[in-house]
Prior knowledge:
single chain
Amino acid sequence: METVQRLRAMASLCRQSATLHPDRSWKLLAEAEYWEHLAATALSTHLEDYFTTGPHDLAAA
């Protein structure tokens, strides 16, 4: 879950930068979408592992 939080933080930084740099906002907002996509994929993988192996097996890993 820490990975998901870090990826979403990167997306947030991109969105904040877009407000400070309107001339590059289109690129920064696209990059924010990219980070959010990675976060969604990481979360999906985490939940899939959770429901496949169970919470007790993930804690040991």
